[in-house]
Amino acid sequence: MRSNQIAFVLRVAKDHRPEKISRLTGVVTAIALASVVFFGSLPTVARAGDLENIAYRQNIMKTIDAQAAALGQILSGEVPDDQAVAHFESIALAASTALKSFEVKSLGGESKPEVWSNWADYSKRMLDFAQKSAEVARIGKTQGKEAALAMVLDALPCKSCHEKYRDANAKK
Ligand code: HEC
User: Whole-model pTM above 0.85?
Assistant: First the structure.
């Protein structure tokens, strides 16, 4: 719209509406236009807190991921294995915080909707993961790191859960 057309529209709006309403409409229109400029579309209705909830569970997963990667380095012989048990303990602790972060149903991120529609199965898998990794950390402390490293696959059921409940290609 050219600027004289905009001026005309504003003048008409002002002439035909009480001052307060036209100011309010102007504010609402400005917010809608600003969101088109910033987000490329009119605002969709997203529940407050969803983005934060998604970021929270992703942060927990990233913690687990980094500790699993450290164990991978140990297993490939890249680095000494002195701290193997501590890495298992870190995974167990992070895994114990994961379930809570999924309890709020915030659809999105890389989570498939099945996380919540199959909640009984999903939550059981997450609890099993937390319990098994804690058990392996305990075995490491009592029987030594070799015993714990031998159980690594049992302690890290990442792939089987991701295959069913995570879409890594989802738009974040
Ligand atoms: C019980 C199911 C389950 C288990 C077990 C599990 N994950 Fe996940 N993971 C998920 C789900 C669901 C997501 C998607 C979260 C989202 O984006 O909403 C995810 C996301 C991730 C992400 C992406 C985080 C990001 O930045 O977006 C990483 C990395 C990850 N998981 C690593 C792991 C590793 C490593 C393990 C095993 C040591 C593991 N996960 C075990 C369910 C699981």
Answer: no
